[in-house]
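Recall the central idea of this unit: under ordinary conditions, the amino acid sequence of a chain determines the structure it adopts. In this exercise we apply that idea directly, starting from the sequence alone.
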Amino acid sequence: MKRLLVQLISTIHGDRHFLSLELRLFTITCLYGGIAALAYGTMNWSLGLDARSFIWLFPCGLALLGTYFLIRFHRSSPEWYRWLLAPVLIVLFAFLVQIWFVNAGTRGGTQYFVFVYAAILMVLTPGWWKLLSAFALTAAVLLLIWLEYAYPGLILGYEALPNPRFMRYLDVGLSFGGSILLLALGVGAVKRNFDSVYRRIYQHREEFMEDLTLARNLQKRIYDFDPAVIDGYDLAVQHHPSGELSGDVYDFSRPETSRLRIFLADARGHGINASLSAMLIKSEWGHINQRALSPARALETLNNRLIVRYGDSISLSGAVTDVWLDRLVFASAGHTPQYLVQSGRLQRLESTGPPLGIVEDGRYREQEYTFSGSARLLLFTDNLVEELDVTGEPVGTDWLEDLVLRSQVSADRLIERIMRAFAARIGQSWISLRTSDDLTLVALTRND
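Accordingly, the structure predicted from this sequence is:
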């Protein structure tokens, strides 16, 4: 029985046909407004009232029902139904004004229908029209109350009816019950619409989260590297995405036995777009002949591949560092200055060319540094110095340079100290850190 009732209501209300809350409520308003007008006209006729006081309720009800059927069964109605909003709302208000005068005004409970009308009005009218409509409705109702007070003869009372006291309370009961019924039907339609939308959103969210989890695991596996690649070095990585996926890229390889290559990049943007760019960057980087290219030439090759294949849709800053037995070769494409500490002195490894994916045939220079046994190299993406601190200002570089210069510790300990200090500056715990952008750090020392 319940299933049959639900199917009947769904058929009448068009639950499967209409996805818009406004359109569904509009059709229900036309349906039950039309039924109410016909029912009220019929009731007044049966009571023997003057036909002039209610005769026009019949064309009003038929017009509302006609509008309902037109919108309910016309497949393109979502495109044009708004043109009918104003006429229907005006007809409904005219219906309320009419029954105000023939339903004993406030004594007959007409104001209950006004409350229902106001609720419908607030849902159906867009933007600033809500405020304008609310003022207009309030002014009109106050005018009706004043007319009832100043000219009581305009209001049809119960004196001409048999058993006036009974008819009054019957009228109030019907008005109150009818308004509650209409309000309940409207709220029920809104709830069904909300439940339907919520179920779809929840389903899409579950599917999205499954895809996101798969993408996160895939990205993590792609970034994994063989520990044998860093043999002879003390290397630590801290990769902290701002969301489920990351737009930062890093890679460690051995173009030659005596050469360790570190690639670190930060794709433009945030979120899924940046993470997709990062995956493509990682793929393109893997197809470059690392053995035959120096850091600068590797950046130039990657830049040209990105522009030829993807145009201007992918851009990034990045740095390539080749670490030899006693020296370091560095090239940077618009990347934040990186740090090399040795002999108690901090050196900033500045950018040597434009960001990748912007300038076709871009040229990049290389810088060479000594890399002694006690040297420490810190590579990082820009959020480490651009995240806002507790005062709303970027955290800057002074604290980081001082910390890196003073910390003669292992790579793991260095990154831990940096992350703790960074988290403290932005007023968070480094265990449950949340940042506005992805953050990646690579610390490297030599195992002697």
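The chain has two domains: 2-203, 225-446.
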